[in-house]
## 1
Amino acid sequence: MATHLVVLSGPSGVGKSSVIQAALKEMPQTWLSVSATTRQPRPGEVDGVNYFYVTNEAFDQMISEGNLLEWAEFAGNRYGTPRTPVEEKLAQDVPVLLEIELQGAKQVRKSMPDAVLVFLTPPSWNDLESRLEGRGTETPEEVAIRLAVAQHELDSADFFDYSITNDDVARAATELVSFLK
Ligand code: 5GP
């Protein structure tokens, strides 16, 4: 039986959220997991929609109680996938999409070997740099950290089952949907 669990990873700024939003329009029955994070909300982000914004203590507790399917530290903050909702949706045969970074994807590969791991890659390094700098949601120091991590993530693209180039959001979304079906 197919598990219908798809992981989308890719460097910060590559456009994962835009591709996911377009994919959800094409396939609205997909359930997108909402992660817990210790980072501060960006302007416009909503608790319970974009993330569950939690304290370091609450995050520690989620780890110690085994409530996270995977978690990782990324650019100074922690991020994790609440386990129960994912398991419930999969049990109901609902396609599940996780948007997580490389270390988390590696943990999912171990704990859920049937998951399909997809990597979203930028058309070019310059494109990634200008997108990350242009969106203006991080300080120059944070951008520099994210670009350093991005280099490492791009070097790890071979780890994933499939790679999608984000040269066109609609086309990339259609490719992503093909893995959810
Ligand atoms: P951002 O701060 O830009 O929202 O997210 C930073 C990175 O953390 C992105 O690569 C994003 O995919 C990843 N991320 C978001 N939620 C999770 C999660 O639950 N687990 C892991 N491992 N990474 C996550």
## 2
Amino acid sequence: MISFPLVQSSPTLNPAASATSTATRTFLIPHHYHTHKLAFISSQFSHPADLPRRLNRLRIQAIDAAQSYNYEAQLVNRFSQSTKLKIAIIGFGNFGQFLAKAFIRQGHTVFAHSRSDYSSIAQSLGVAFFFDTHDLCEQHPDVILLCTSIISTESVLKSLPIQRLRRNTLFVDVLSVKEFPKNIFLQHLPSHFDILCSHPMFGPESGKNGWQNLAFVFDKVRIGNEKSRLTRAETFLDIFKNEGCRMVEMTCAEHDKYAAGSQFITHTMGRILEKLQLQGTPVNTKGYETLLNLVDNTASDSFDLYYGLFMYNKNAMEQLERLDLAFEALKKELFGHLHEVLRKQLFGKSEESPRLVLAKLPKKNRTSLLPASTSETETVVNNTLVNNNN
Ligand code: NAP
């Protein structure tokens, strides 16, 4: 990256920056896609005494004159042979920024667009931020990476001016559910675009100390047969491989089944524990520390993300019900034991007493006093009742 004085470019590239009134405004522009454009220094001085300095600053810094006749072709060729990608991140929130850092670290060119203004964060990371998706698509990124919330992804995808992209652009998503983005990609993207669905199974919190051995799930939903397209998909996957991720290829449907039973349960437990407002104590056990970490790992994610895990994974509801049943079963087990203890305390060694007490109760009240799981007890009681009636 090189820092240019005000580069003559689309005014929408960074309107926030162009609104400033400083004498020299700088933009961070990756050198390999703006090298041949004119660069000026812009000045706004209020005092005539500044004129000589102003004229001096209004010189042309670079021109694209006298380039060889096939300069553009050479440039394109050089880029297509390069192992570096131009990646456009759509949705530059928590996770989009987290991924951008790794992309930049590995030498890729990163563009970003988001609903909110992240231009200064982008600039600090070395990312070119675009307020307008038309401008972004006209940069012809190799990869469009959707990092939007699960629930907003379809409307964001539909709003992209995909006609401005190169015909075989690779679309990738990192949503935490997989069948849903696969289906909307297939539904909304013309068949000449490539599709790679992926899910890095970690986030800014769990991946803050590196990605070594963290799982990266992917499904090559539709990649064209040409060598350049196959290579491009591999180059994108290599980013995660290079960081040490455990690469797991599986279908989107398989992912959603596994993820509902693991990730959704993890997030649900984290959110339940968060509601308990657990605090550290002077006698924390290792297990308790694990619970506190679980809250940190899950509660810092947006509720949109958690809600998306539930709404857009058809297996999530079943897991929620299983969780409910498991909790009820556990409570019954505990209360069953409690019932036994209480009975012993109340009646000592006399086993006849509870039966007699129960026998005197109206029939509808008897069952509610019995432990649900002890059908044996029920039989004994019924026998007793029969005996008593006799
Ligand atoms: P998130 O709350 O799931 O998504 C936030 C992003 O979505 C922001 O970029 C936000 O844009 C955008 N967004 C939300 N509503 C929008 C709308 N109505 N229109 C346009 N954009 C909208 O939080 P996240 O953690 O950044 O996750 C992003 C994606 O990565 C999700 O699909 C998530 O499943 C996936 N993922 C996250 C993690 C993780 O640990 N966080 C791990 C793996 C995968 P603005 O900020 O500009 O408003």
